[in-house]
């Protein structure tokens, strides 16, 4: 389907591979690129791929989109996973390329139902493993605090306060 803002289409394989990453966890990451007026899958990382393997996929002079399934341990010692969407737009890439990727980003992200954390990076340091881990834990803690502050009963039903 074409993106009205940029005229960009999203190849069906992008959504299919993302669903496989999300539900079957057969990929650790997916890197996407815009090619011939559509977003296509460029690279798939298997479930045992490292974060270093993922980082090596980003060209220094070209933009990319990527999703990464990040596993981490919370402060409560629970194993969790967050799906990151990363928009890679290095300063050294061409202005036109940056504009095309920027104008297509939100529409493409909406096609991938299940993104939990959104990041923008212009330099590898802006998406380091430490930063990704901090964002995952921070987002988990914010959600956990929100859930514990709201008045819900044990079945998840909202309980109206008695004033």
Descriptive overview:
Helices cover 34% and strands 26% of the residues. The protein has helices spanning 12-24, 51-55, 95-111, 129-149; strands at 9-10, 29-35, 38-45, 64-73, 79-88, 117-121. The chain has 4 helices and 6 strands, in the order βαββαββαβα. It has one domain: Severin (3-Layer(aba) Sandwich). The chain is of the alpha/beta class. A hairpin with a 5-residue loop joins β4 and β5. The termini are far apart. The chain has a 6-stranded mixed β-sheet, with helices on both faces.
User: Which shape, going by the Cα principal axes?
Assistant: globular
Catalogue the unreliable spans.
1-5
- Which structural class should the secondary elements be placed in? alpha/beta
Distance between the termini: 51 Å
Total helical elements: 4
In which order are the strands of the major sheet placed?
1-3-2-4-5-6
Our estimate of the beta-strand percent is 25-35%
CATH superfamily: Severin
How many structural domains?
Answer: 1
Biggest β-sheet strands, sense, barrel = 6 strands, mixed
CATH-derived topology: Severin
Series of H and E elements: EHEEHEEHEH
Compute the CA-based radius of gyration. 18 Å
Number of strands: 6
CATH class: Alpha Beta
Can you tell me the CATH architecture? 3-Layer(aba) Sandwich
Helix percent band: 25-40%
Chain-averaged pLDDT: 88
């Amino acid at each position: 389907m074409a993106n009205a803002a940029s005229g960009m289409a999203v190849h069906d394989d992008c959504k299919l591979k993302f669903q496989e990453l999300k539900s079957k966890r057969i990929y650790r990451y997916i890197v996407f690129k815009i090619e011939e007026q559509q977003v296509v899958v460029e690279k798939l990382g298997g479930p045992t791929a490292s974060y270093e393997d993922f980082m090596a996929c980003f060209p220094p002079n070209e933009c990319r989109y990527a999703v990464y399934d990040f596993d981490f341990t919370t402060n409560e010692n629970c194993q969790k996973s967050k799906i990151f969407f990363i928009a890679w737009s290095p300063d050294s890439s061409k202005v036109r390329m940056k504009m095309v990727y920027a104008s297509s980003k939100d529409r493409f992200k909406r096609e991938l139902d299940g993104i939990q954390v959104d990041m923008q990076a212009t330099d590898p340091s802006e998406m380091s493993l430490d930063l990704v881990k901090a964002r995952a834990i921070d987002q988990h803690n914010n959600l956990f605090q929100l859930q514990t502050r709201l008045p819900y009963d044990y079945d998840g039903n909202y309980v109206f306060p008695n004033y």
